[in-house]
Specification:
- With 196 residues, the chain is an alpha/beta fold.
- The protein is globular.
- The protein is built from 5 helices and 8 strands; from the N terminus they run αββββαβαβαββα.
- Helices cover 35% and strands 18% of the residues.
- The chain has a single domain, classed as 3-Layer(aba) Sandwich (Glutaredoxin).
- Helix 2 crosses helix 5.
- The termini are far apart.
- The model has no long low-confidence stretch (mean pLDDT 83).
Length: 196
């Protein structure tokens, strides 16, 4: 009799968890293709390390900067890419594309992971909880393995310069530090073509 009660409890818990996941996922907004210009930036963003505060987006995303957009797995590359590029402070911006994740993952799991990855380094790391930056940049997917690199030109126009992918399980150690560095060589060469 106790086993039957336990089975019922497990089934009810699973159904509740699945229902909670589906009810808290935001439906993705339709992305319309148009020129991306910093004049149309979302008004404010949330930064990792500065919880419960909003920052003026135009004070972070400026001309002559590089924007790295990473998803759940690919975000693991962000800090290494920043170190390898060695750009001046504020010239490399990281965006965590987590807007399609369920509410409780955005609130705890993904946020904790991003905070650990950032460490104590002073980096503009946007936690794009509501998807405003993703939609602004026309990021086409929230595929956990993909990442996107954008160039903010001197005239304020933004172009996608690179799309890359990481191995499945990258956040759990399936890619060594040397593999991560090797996979970033191509994007670094591309960025250097833009005189950064």
């Amino acid at each position: 009799m106790k086993i039957w009660t336990t089975v019922k409890l497990v089934v009810i818990s699973l159904v509740a968890l699945i229902a909670l996941t589906f009810l808290t996922v935001d439906t993705p907004k339709k992305i319309e293709k148009s020129t991306i210009d910093i004049q149309n930036l979302p008004q404010s963003v949330e930064l990792i390390g500065f919880e419960e505060q909003k920052f003026n987006t135009s004070s972070i995303i400026k001309p002559k900067t590089i924007i790295f957009v990473g998803n759940h797995e690919s975000i693991i590359l962000a800090k290494t890419l920043d170190e390898m590029l060695g750009l001046d402070d504020g010239k490399f911006i990281i965006v965590s594309n987590i807007s399609d994740e369920p509410w409780f993952i955005k609130r705890w799991q993904a946020h904790t992971q991003n905070t650990k990855l950032k460490g104590d380094k002073h980096l503009p790391w946007i936690y794009d909880r509501d998807g405003s930056i993703r939609n602004f940049l026309h990021v086409p997917t929230s595929d956990a393995l993909k990442y996107f690199v954008y160039n903010v030109k001197e005239d304020g126009k933004i172009e996608n310069m690179y799309i890359g992918k990481v191995k499945v399980g990258a956040t759990n150690g399936t890619m060594s530090e040397s593999e991560i560095k090797m996979s970033l060589e191509e994007v670094i060469n591309k960025i250097k073509q833009f005189n950064y």
